[in-house]
Write a structure and sequence with these properties.
- The longest helix has 29 residues.
- A hairpin with a 4-residue loop joins strand 9 and strand 10.
- The chain is α/β, with parallel strands linked by helices.
- The chain has a six-stranded mixed beta sheet with strand order 8-9-10-12-15-14. A five-stranded parallel beta sheet has the order 2-3-4-1-5. A two-stranded antiparallel sheet has the order 6-7.
- It has four domains: 184 residues, Rossmann fold, CATH 3.40.50.300; 47 residues, no CATH class; 94 residues, Winged helix-like DNA-binding domain superfamily/Winged helix DNA-binding domain (Arc Repressor Mutant, subunit A, Orthogonal Bundle), CATH 1.10.10.10; 121 residues, Trna Endonuclease, Chain: A, domain 1 (3-Layer(aba) Sandwich).
Length: 483
């Protein structure tokens, strides 16, 4: 049976200090509570019960919980788990695997020879991109292994990867030698906002949104937080070994050799510079083309390009936004203050002072998720087929949900404020914003939703339109429907 120490034994043989963080991460995830990955776990267990050969690719950004998921799924099965490193992987894989399959001690040092002894077994290679970096031809070697040795066996072969670009280009691309060999692909994404309640069952919805603005739905960060959130963050910033000091460099250096320009772009976007021109001006680059950098950041899922929900993806009004809240938080509050944090002279109140404004976009994401969940439950006046933001020049609406077939549309504003005047917002939307949304203007049926921390007075109707007002108390009650 698998023993926890096998997962990291190859690191100690190598003795490379840069792998220490990975070792610690593996040791931590062996003991933490497993939260809110039931669908993914079920899918993997079904693969394990299959009578056929299974070759499953599991990937997603670092810290997302890939290793924890696969170890949870195979914990009751005999298996070989290997965490690939930067070099000598053939030698170290053999040493790890032979502790489970003794006969492998006698195998020649080649992947093909190893897998001769591993037929009908469960084999997991974590951080497979490290094998590719060490030897790009390894992908062709594994194509041969699958075709000649494994495809007619009951072997269960899982490869995991944190480098989204390498997995997409070298494993999943139709140009890859392994194209067509996989039997399953699982892309692990951050948990949804309403799933993180499992980590903090005693926290209020307001505190959960504050936590989400920091950690997103990334298990690694969520597990570190011990409420109350602000007290924990203050203590974390004072720690000499705080993960906040090195975390984003750790993430980015796995994807990029030189991170300097990429970091400046992410800093620009974190401070609201979302157009190509605004980003270029922030970087003080007048003539250099930064689009390759933007493309790389999109491919590696640090950034995404979004367009108004009523327009096609080719719209010239596209904006660049940071995909997850942790990266956005880091570039907004940590990166500009690293020197003060290093000197232990940074005051967490500097973050708290700007945090309500920062949470505006975060609250929009929470409201969007809530509307999606209500849509699935059939709790809205119509079933929408598309949802997203909308903007045109100086006009902007936080969220629009629409149905092309029924010509129904919901306009939503999200205000991370107390005592919101719902009538004033509805009036502004009806008179100054909604008429500028050029989408079936004379044929559509309109609804309005307003989200806020609290309202001065709720509103049910304005100018012939149904108004839905949701405060945090309403959202907390509705959240119970999504469990």
């Amino acid at each position: 049976m698998f023993q926890p120490n096998l997962a990291v034994s190859s690191f100690f043989l190598v003795g490379r200090s840069e792998n220490l963080n990975m070792i610690i991460s593996i040791m931590i995830i062996m003991i933490i509570k497993f939260v809110n990955r039931e669908k993914e776990l079920k899918a993997l267990k079904e693969r394990l019960k299959s009578d056929n050969f299974e070759f499953v690719v599991i990937y997603g950004r670092r810290r997302i919980g890939k290793t924890r998921l696969i170890l949870e799924s195979i914990k009751d099965e005999e298996h070989v788990y290997y965490l690939a490193i930067e070099g000598d992987n053939l030698k170290h894989f053999k040493r790890v695997a032979s502790q489970v399959i003794n006969e492998l001690n006698y195998a020649e040092e080649s992947w093909e020879s190893y897998f001769n002894f591993l037929k009908d077994k469960i084999v997991v290679i974590d951080e497979f991109p490290n094998l590719i970096k060490e030897n790009p031809k390894v992908v062709s070697e594994f194509q041969r292994i699958v075709d000649l040795l494994l495809k007619d066996t009951k072997t269960k072969f899982f490869i995991l990867g944190s480098s989204v670009s390498i997995i997409n280009n070298k494993i999943l691309s139709y140009k890859s030698p392994l194209y067509g060999r996989k039997t399953g692909v699982l892309k692990l994404k951050p948990m949804n906002f309403f799933d993180i309640q499992g980590f903090f069952p005693s926290s209020s919805l307001e505190e959960l949104i504050e936590i989400y603005g920091f950690a997103d739905g990334i298990p690694y960060y969520l597990e570190k937080i011990v409420p109350p959130f602000w007290k924990w963050l203050e203590n974390e910033l004072e720690r000499a070994d705080s993960f906040l000091r090195y975390e984003v460099d750790f993430l980015m250096k796995y994807e990029f050799e030189d991170v300097t320009t990429y970091k400046k772009i992410l800093e620009a976007v974190a401070f609201g510079k979302t157009s190509l021109k605004e980003i270029r001006d922030y970087l003080e680059i007048r003539h250099s083309d930064i689009t390759p950098y933007l493309s790389n950041l999109i491919e590696t899922e640090f950034l995404e390009r979004v367009v108004p929900v009523t327009e096609s993806h080719k719209s010239k009004r596209g904006r660049y936004v940071i995909q997850d809240n942790f990266i956005r938080f880091w570039f907004r509050f940590i990166f500009p203050n690293l020197s003060l944090i290093e000197e232990n002279s940074f005051d967490v109140r500097e973050i708290k002072r700007e945090y309500s404004q920062y949470l505006g976009c975060v609250f929009e994401r929470v409201c969007k998720e809530m509307l999606i969940n209500l849509n699935k439950k059939g709790r809205l006046p119509f079933k929408f087929t598309k949802i997203g933001g909308w903007w045109h020049k100086a006009k902007e609406i936080d969220l629009i949900a629409l149905n092309e077939l029924t010509k129904e549309i919901l306009f939503a504003e999200c205000k991370w404020k107390d005592n919101v005047n719902a009538e004033r917002i509805a009036k502004d939307m009806v008179r100054n914003k909604i008429p500028y949304v050029r989408w079936y203007s004379d044929k559509r049926r309109e609804y309005i939703a307003i989200f806020a921390k609290s309202f001065r007075k709720k509103l049910e109707e304005f100018d012939g339109r149904k108004i839905y007002c949701f405060d945090l108390k309403d959202m907390q009650k509705l959240a119970d429907l999504f469990k």
